[in-house]
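cron nightly-structures :: item 1 of 1
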Amino acid sequence: SLLQTQDWAISRIMASCLCLLLLLTALAGARDAGVLYEVWHTPSALAMQHVVSQGGKPLTVETVLRSNGSVTLDDILKPYNVSGKFYHVQPAKLGFYCMYRQRSGDPDPASPDCPNITQTATRHAALLTQAGFDYVAVDITNWPVSTTVADVAVIRPTEVLFEEWLSLRKQGITTPQIAIWPCSPNNSNTWQVLLDRIYNNASYSDLIYSQDGKYVVFLPDNVHCNDDDVQAKIEANGGNAPQYCQPLSPLSSAIMIYQRCHDVSPSFCC
């Protein structure tokens, strides 16, 4: 009958819609969402804390712009000897936060510890997870060479982020995974330090962002921050892939390189 035919047609349409919905859900589930993450706040945060400790008012670029000329950065840079160390935006609940913590047993640490590191890392993990991010890419692009300045700015804070989020995961608290985004021209070595200290640390194997069984490293797609030979070394994990990168496949390169992290669908080679 016509009614039975209509019922059959509606059932087929509903079944097709359900299949399409399941397919779209599966495809959506296969895609990860990531966001750039900055850790270089240590000198600026400690400088602002110094200003406060001396009875001054910390200023940011945002505060200066909003003041319509009533204040300038010179109001803190000169009197408190914090040249070049300032925040760009007015911080929210966490204040002037940073992520540097001295390494255990370091006889000559380059910087004091940042305050409230665990509070900062915990809140960031919660906010990023609630926003639906699967991973963060830590921006190391301004520090291609490992120096004391680079260690205070990005290398040690990146280690601390791993330490803190690993601790949260051990408590059953969800965090995003983490990848690094270094600038790696010829004669650079920060990437090697990060591989040695983080990517080859078995404790972090579940925390490092990976795809297809390979840890992910992002590289800027420009001639100033990329070198074919260095990229090949990173892909092979500095030559250490077979020994140190389990559970990665010892039969393949250890690192998956994303070259165009500004693209919607970045290309990768490995």
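cron nightly-structures :: done
The chain has a mean pLDDT of 80.
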